[in-house]
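Batch 3, record 17
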Amino acid sequence: SQTIHQWPATLVQPVGSPLSLECTVEGTSNPNLYWYRQAAGRGLQLLFYSVGIGQISSEVPQNLSASRPQDRQFILSSKKLLLSDSGFYLCAWSRGYSDGYTFGSGTRLTVV
Amino acid sequence: GESVGLHLPTLSVQEGDNSIINCAYSNSASDYFIWYKQESGKGPQFIIDIRSNMDKRQGQRVTVLLNKTVKHLSLQIAATQPGDSAVYFCAENPSTGNQFYFGTGTSLTVIP
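Prediction for the assembled complex:
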């Protein structure tokens, strides 16, 4: 069966520090991978998606970047965090565009 | 982006009653819809899905209804239990797109 791992679960970082969140999927190959951000009391905002190694599409301009160095690994990064980067970050995978997503357990990021 | 809106941001129901959560979508080309349940501090979990060639689909204690004429989706939960307390998101996938669009969510509280 397929599983998705996301870590860390919680993170407190000072403004201006770098960020690296990692997501890995097991039990499948060539998944579509997604990074979402969820502000408190809000919906899910798509940040990045990837259909293959090295292929990244960005949905909104921001202080973040994403990379896919391996087929089942998706990394969300920032060189310098802003207060506004605080939120709940979710990684998800799907087999294809029209298939449902399976989400990871999320990372609660607080920038102080 | 697409607009997937929910009629009620919060809903409180008595344990044992039936719950109905509504969702309006804007893209008539959307052909696949999913309801997700998100418990506090966790990632969304798949509940039930429906494709546009159907108007009703039933699962265990849950039913999704799709009205394509008015672009409306609903989730019915029978005999609501305290464990059903969560935020519920609807998501639509336009047939011409490459991602799902999520609504803001409805927070369901079950009163024992």
